Amino acid sequence: MTDDTARSVELERIGAHVYRARNPRGGSLIFGSADGPEFSPIELLLAAIGGCTALDVEYITGKRAEPTILACTTRGDKIREESGNRMTNLEVTFRVEFPAGEAGDAARTVLPDALRKSHDRLCTVTRTVELPSPVTTRLAEG
Fold it and tell me: I need a surface site. Which of 63, 72, 88, 104 has the fewest CB within 10 A?
C-alpha cells in the first residue's frame, strides 16, 4: 500500500472503556462503550456511513447551490446470532433543502443521482461495509 492510499488512526485508552482516536492530520475524537455519553463504535460506524454520503452529496450538489439543510439519520439493528454480532437493516435517510431559484432547482435535479452515485461508487465507507473486506487483527511485536 502506498502513502496516497493508506489511511490510519491511532487509538489510546484514556479511561475505563473510553478511548481517544487520532488521525495523522491532528484531529481527535473520544469514544467509548455505550454505557457513557461518548459515541460507541457502532455509532461511529453509523456516523461514518451517513457522513460519507453526506459529503459526496454536498460536493456534487454544492457545485450548483449550497444546501440550506443537509441532514441525515443513519440507523440499523444490532443483532446477535450464532456466527457473531453484527449490524443489519442499515438505512440512511436524508433531508436536503436548497434555496429557491435556478441554482437550487439545478441542485434538486441532481440530488437523486448524487445519492445513487455515492451509494454505488463514491462512498468508501458504504462500499466497504457492503463488499467483503477482510480485517486482520494482530498483536504488535515488542
Answer: 88
Check if the beta carbon of residue 74 is closer than 8 Å to that of residue 90.
yes
Quick check: 8 and 21 in contact, CB under 8 A?
Answer: no
In the structure, what pLDDT confidence band is assigned to residue 2 with cuts at 50, 70 and 90? low
Q: Where are the alpha helices (DSSP H) in 40-117?
A: 41-61, 102-117
pLDDT tens readout for residues 84-121: 999 999 999 999 999 999 999 999 999 999 999 999 99
In Å, what is the CA distance from 83 to each residue of 79, 80, 87, 109, 120?
11, 8, 12, 43, 28
CA 1, chain centre distance (Å): 22
pTM exceeds 0.85, yes or no: yes
